[in-house]
Amino acid sequence: MEYIASPYCQNPLLRASYSLIAPLYDWVVDRPMRQARQRSLLALPDTASRVLISGVGTGLDFPYLPSDHVYTALDFNAAMLSRAKPRAGGLEVEFVLGDSMALPFGDAVFDHVVLHLIVAVVPEPQRCLSEAARVLRPGGTILLFDKFLHPQQSAPLRRLLNPLTRRLATRMDVVFEDVLRAVPTLKVVSDEPALAGGWFRRIVLRKA
What we know:
Layout (H helix, E strand, L loop, with lengths): L11 H30 L8 E5 L15 E6 L2 H7 L7 E6 L12 E7 L8 H10 L1 E12 L8 H13 L7 H6 L4 E10 L4 E8 L1
Parallel strand pairs: 1-2, 1-4, 2-3, 4-5
Antiparallel strand pairs: 5-7, 6-7
Helix pairs in contact: 1-2
């Protein structure tokens, strides 16, 4: 497992926070989001491909991934990756410690990118999506499952909590449409509500 220095990894508070969260992450996240996660991954094709899971966390995607792909699983937190490894089972997976906002890969090397609960977590969502597009081959897809505010949505409580939550775990103020405008090579294939009255969405993007 290679360590990749990056701006995200240099944030000691986030590193410490996710190291503490790792043992509790599955208990909080797994069951309520299991079905939405599984439905998102149904968009992966049957043909063998190179797939990047950017922000793999504790590997909750692994049980729903088809076995005929070659996967690269990246996360910025070693505690999360250590919990992900046993879940890989019979999948062909390379684990990388690195930053979703500064991916340690060349341009256009993956056929598909999975971004589950990462775009609205990182400090710079536009940079995360831009990096996913950079490493994606033309015609490839990004499978995105996350929580987003809608344009002009007030959501006062979420915005009030955001200054705290963004430093410890996740952002609450990300508007997907604003993030997408920063990456013009990506086009929306589908956009569906997933959980919490549409706060969580399943989105498929394709690179031109």
